[in-house]
Amino acid sequence: MASLKVLIAASEVVGFAKTGGLADVAGSLPRALAARGHQVAVVMPYYRGVRHLKDPPVNTGVVIPVPVGNRTLACRLFRSTLPKSEVPIFFVEAPDYFDRDDAREGKGLYQQTMPGGYKADYPDNAERFTFFSRAVLEAIPALGFVPDIVHANDWQTGLVPVYLAEVYRSRPGYGQMRSVYTIHNIAYQGNFGADVMGLTGLPGWLFNSTQLEFHGRLNFLKAGVVFADAVNTVSPTYSREITTYEYGCGMEGLLQQVQGKLSGIVNGVDYGVWDPAVDPHIPANYDAGTVFEQKPKSKAELLTRFNLPVEMDKPVLGVVARLVVQKGIDLILSAAPGFLDLGCKLIFLGEGDPEYHNELEQFQRRHPDKVGLYLGFDETLAHLIEAGSDLFLMPSRYEPSGLNQLYSLKYGTPPVVRATGGLADTIVNADEENLAAKTGTGFAFNDYTAGALYDTVKWATTLYRDRPEDFRQVVRTAMRQDWSWGRSAGEYEALYRRILG
Ligand code: ADP
How many domains does the chain fold into? Predict the structure, then answer.
């Protein structure tokens, strides 16, 4: 089949700027598409952090005109390649908008830390990303190829499909392009005052409740959903969940209407970084053939690292997460005393809401020989917890795609998950039926209650203690699963081809 030409637009790309999962997708998907023979380029803002990289992008010499409000900016394009690849990535320069992020001053990509310590969005975010979305379309002549697909992501590039459909489609070269819009987390929508319409340069009649308007405001995410040729989220279950009141954050009605063009594709894992066979952060590498001899070495080191007694027969439950409501930390805290009664040890790595910090610290102080806690961000420790735990807890309230459960599979650490979003799509519950069929890869429950979590951990630890052959079968099946980017890229390719007809 003919190869495709794809332009991916994102407000962050791993290796250049990152606040969340979008950056991983925007860095990994293009490389995986390129590996399948497609021609791919990425475009993102020229942030201050990019400008000051050890290996900064080079000036292409190309200057593009970008209309915003009643002026037109002349912007330079810079160029680099995605890490460990030849995939080009272009950066749009606009110092007023993007030369400001600086960790020492508490200034991030979208937010700054205010004197009271809280984080506030930049007041000009609507203008910054209106500009960027328009710049994506203006940059196309400089790419060296004409894309079949323009793939935009999250609210920051929600206007890209609108500009393509309403402004650029009629221009030479743009006529055949199709747009894809990916929602990584529906909670962030870019919902701005109606006055922003003036900045966009779009015709005022588009500001109506079936197109750009959401309850009197201009909503960038809605704009992307309405105008894109295809919309997807980062797992099939999440794509269905967001059509409901409980998960839709107000967009459920619209998403029900566009169900025909809505789908879900689970994010991939970078197995170059997350594979116990090559992981430099664990004491002994292992694969499915050596897991039962070598994995205990990671367990012993993990327990030692947290000053816990090295009792190898006691199951260790690991948690690595942002400590926020989404991740079900409240369920874990409620059920945790019960886990200790079951003879488990608990190890936490995370940072987030101060209330969770306090509660976890108190819990750890009460049980210093059973609970390990590190409040902070530590990538090396995250690897050791994946390898050294016997079970991994991820009882999320919602989970668009999720990475940690996929790492757990690869590390032979069956995850205990709530069956929501990407967790529902990637973990096969090891109940009696699936044990008999040898298809179970972890443990899943439905109700968002501490009782359901406790019962599931109890079942998992029963297998661990009393039916070791069944537990080992789950470990082996988990480790065989392939959630690589190659698989995700294959699904994106199919989606692209579908809308190209
Ligand atoms: P989300 O993107 O919602 O935070 P995911 O499971 O998709 O959840 O991805 C979380 C990623 O962040 C994983 O790579 C995980 O290892 C990492 N992570 C989260 N918290 C920490 C932490 N405190 N220290 C190290 N890594 C962390």
Answer: 2
164 and 95 together in one domain: yes
| Rounded Cα gap, residues 329 and 373, in angstroms | 13
CA 287 – ligand 1 centroid, Å: 23
Is residue 322 lining ligand 1, measured as CB closer than 6 Å? yes
Q: Is residue 84 part of a domain?
A: yes
350 lines ligand 1 (CB under 6 A): yes
* Domain ranges, residue 21: 5-268+486-500
402 CB under 6 A from ligand 1?
yes
22-31 pLDDT tens trace: 999 999 999 9
Cα-to-centroid distance, 404 and ligand 1 (Å): 7
- Three-state secondary-structure class, residue 108: coil
Per-residue CA distances from 262 to 14, 182, 299, 484 (Å)? 26, 10, 42, 23
Helix (H) or strand (E) holding 255: helix 252-257
Atom of ligand 1 nearest to the CA of 394: 6
pLDDT (tens digit per residue) in 130-139: 999 999 999 9
| 54 CA from centroid of ligand 1 (Å) | 25
Quick check: 79 and 90 in contact, CB under 8 A?
Answer: yes
Average pLDDT, the chain: 97
> Is the domain of 340 the same as that of 254?
no
Assign 22 to helix, strand or coil. helix
CATH number at residue 34: 3.40.50.2000
Task: Tell me whether residue 286 is in a domain.
Answer: no
DSSP H or E stretch at residue 496: helix 485-500
Same domain flag for 46 and 180: yes
Same structural domain for residues 328 and 251? no
In this structure, the answer to whether residues 183 and 316 fall within a common structural domain is no
Query: Averaged in consecutive runs of 10 residues, what is the pLDDT profile of the chain (501 residues)?
Result: 95 93 94 97 98 96 96 97 96 98 95 90 98 98 94 98 97 96 96 97 97 98 98 98 97 98 96 95 97 98 98 98 95 98 98 94 98 94 98 97 97 98 98 98 98 98 98 98 96 98 89
| 334 CA → ligand 1 middle, Å | 22
Task: Pick the residue whose CA is nearest to atom 17 on ligand 1.
Answer: 321
